[in-house]
Structures are given as C-alpha cells and as structure tokens.
Amino acid sequence: MTIHVPKAPCDADVADQALPLFGTVNNAQRLLRLSLPYPVANAALRGQPVTAEVNDAVTIAWRTWCQLYVRGLAFSPDMTFRLPDTVEAAYQAMNELSEQEAAEWRRVKGRIHVMGAS
Fold it and tell me: Are 94 and 63 a contacting pair, CB within 8 Å?
C-alpha cells in the first residue's frame, strides 16, 4: 500500500522567474545550489506539482538567491551562501531589504519577466 503525498506547484514567482532567468534547469540547480534530482528540479521549476519539501527547498533557494542578487553578492566568485532553514526565514530575509534594495529588486524582477517572454 502506498502513502499518498499531496503535491502542489511551486511558488508562482519561482516558476515564472527562475527558469527564464537561468535558462536551463542545470544552470538553476547549480546557481541556486539545489541538491534535488534533475527530474524533481525540472518539475518544480516548470510549475508542475511537487511535494511540500521540494517546494520549500526551491522557494528557500530562490528567495535567498534573489536577496543576494539585489545586494550584489549572488555572482561572487566563490558563490558561498547558506540557505535559511525554512521558507519563513527566507521570506523574512527578503522582507529585510532596504527601500533601495526593494526598488532594485522590482526593477530586476520586471527585466526577468521581459526575458521570460522572449
């Protein structure tokens, strides 16, 4: 007897922004430091239903990367950063952006949507 594990699509901004920005699932896995198997990461980044654990892992990685990008740290040579333990902590980190950082993220976010549309 199998146990049913509820699934749901990843956060909308992950599916809408991450894959268009990074271009491929492999790039997204590498830059977001996702240790998920390729088929699972592929499903998550394409907005297909995944488990809550996968959704949390992808959302945490995306939110952390966004925070670091806005602060100019996402493309540092060593790419060292520690992912928060929970989605709430990742959102909290994004909420702690200054007004200038938040304005920069809104500008970048708009550019990501334009890249995804082409």
Answer: yes
Going by the DSSP 8-state scheme, the letter that residue 78 receives in this structure is: T
Question: In the numeric block, which tokens belong to residue 114?
Answer: 């334009």
By the 8 A CB rule, do 110 and 21 touch? no
- Contact 34/57 with Cβ under 8 angstroms? yes
> pLDDT, tens digit, for every residue of 29-80?
888 888 899 999 999 998 899 998 999 899 888 888 887 776 665 555 455 5
As a whole number of angstroms, the distance between CA 42 and CA 24 comes to 9
Amino acid at 100: Q
Question: In this structure, are residues 21 and 109 in contact, taking their beta carbons and an 8 Å threshold?
Answer: no
